[in-house]
Specification:
Pfam families: BATS, Radical_SAM. Homodimer. There is one protein chain. The chain is α/β, with parallel strands linked by helices. It is built from 13 helices and twelve strands. It has one domain: TIM Barrel. The strands form two sheets. Strands 1, 2, 3, 4, 5, 6, 7, 8, 9 and 12 form a ten-stranded parallel β-sheet that branches. The chain has a two-stranded antiparallel ribbon with strand order 10-11. The chain is globular, with a radius of gyration of 19 Å. The structure holds iron/sulfur cluster.
Length: 333
């Protein structure tokens, strides 16, 4: 089989044996920027080749997402409607009961989800909260679903407790480049997030980590984010690429819209840089045409959030997704 590691693919294009010699090295920010600069058709061809060498290109994994505790978060992430710092804060809801979570997970499974993600708006969980979330994880796992939680920053021992409860994945996004991060959040640093991801890995959990584009960042910032994710050892198993959904009352409500082809380029660059990761088309999908989504799947996206709600923003509804999968003859896994 041809070598489709990121550097080998670049080398093939450049005709360079020097790059092939370092085929296992993660792509640098400059190399990823070079991918962005390619003619779109060349970039898509390259990304689709990498995709096909590592996955069945007609299969898409589906995850469902439930907000188990909404609003009232002390952090000030500029894109988020759950921050207590923003005027547009979502109405607060306290932690759901295990029964409520099990009912939602059962419905998600019936709709075809294979993984159930539970999100709580916290800077990080208190140990007492973690006990309750661990119960939810065990109950969802018992339904035969893969489990994922996103709870903010973790302290020592918390990742291990979640692993013990049956957790498969922990989601914690790097959000944007280290350079752009302070323009988006000031109540914590990106390095705090990196630290939590280290704890997650040490506990033996799988990592789900990606970012959000369309937050006023430059192309270099997008490339730097992908390079940072790809340089993790190993890279995250799951890489959500979110398109900002500007929410009224948040600091990013008037962020300039990103060109849809730049979004497709970002998916393609992530696919090439992380050949073995699931690249997830995440928030913002409800505003994308079927054609744009299809282009993203061709560019290497092979996972979606599925169902009616994506934390607090609307998601494309399940029926619309099923119709699109049928038209594209995509199989859900
Ligand atoms: S930590 Fe999470 S819930 Fe809190 S403001 Fe940031 S993104 Fe929103």
């Amino acid at each position: 089989m041809n070598d489709h590691t990121p550097a080998a693919v670049l080398a093939a294009e450049a005709g360079s044996s020097a790059l092939a010699a370092t085929a296992s090295a993660p792509l640098t920010t400059a190399e990823i920027e070079a991918l962005y600069e390619l003619p779109l058709m060349d970039l898509l061809y390259r990304a689709a080749s990498v995709h096909r060498a590592n996955f069945d290109a007609n299969e898409v994994q589906r995850s469902a997402l439930l907000s188990v505790k909404t609003g009232g978060c002390g952090e000030n992430c500029g894109y988020c409607s759950q921050s207590a710092h923003h005027e547009g804060e979502t109405p607060r809801e306290s932690l759901l009961s295990v029964d409520q979570v099990v009912a939602a997970a059962t419905a998600a499974k019936e709709q075809g989800a294979s993984r159930f993600c539970m999100g709580a708006a916290w800077r990080g969980p208190k140990d007492s909260d973690l006990v309750k979330v661990a119960e939810m994880v065990s109950a969802v796992k018992a339904l035969g679903l893969e489990t994922c939680v996103t709870l903010g920053m973790l302290k020592d021992g918390q990742a291990e407790a979640l692993k013990e409860a049956g957790l498969d994945y922990y989601n914690h996004n790097l959000d944007t480049s280290a350079e752009h991060y302070t323009n988006i959040v000031t109540t914590h640093k990106q390095t705090d997030r990196v630290e939590t991801l280290g704890r997650v890995r040490e506990a033996g959990l799988k990592v789900c980590s990606g970012g959000i584009v369309g937050m006023g960042e430059s192309r270099r910032d997008r490339a730097a984010l992908i390079a940072q994710l790809a340089a993790m050892e190993p890279p995250p198993e799951s890489v959500p690429i979110n398109h900002l959904t500007p929410i009224p009352g948040t600091p990013l409500e008037n962020a300039p819209p990103l060109d849809p082809f730049e979004f497709v380029r970002t998916i393609a660059a992530a696919r090439i840089a992380m050949p073995k990761s699931f690249v997830r088309l995440s928030a913002g999908r409800q505003n994308m045409s079927e054609e744009l989504q299809a282009m993203c799947f061709f560019a290497g996206a092979n996972s979606i959030f599925y169902g009616e709600n994506l934390l607090t923003t609307e998601n494309a509804d399940a029926e619309r997704d099923q119709a699109l999968f049928a038209k594209l003859q995509l199989r859900a896994i």
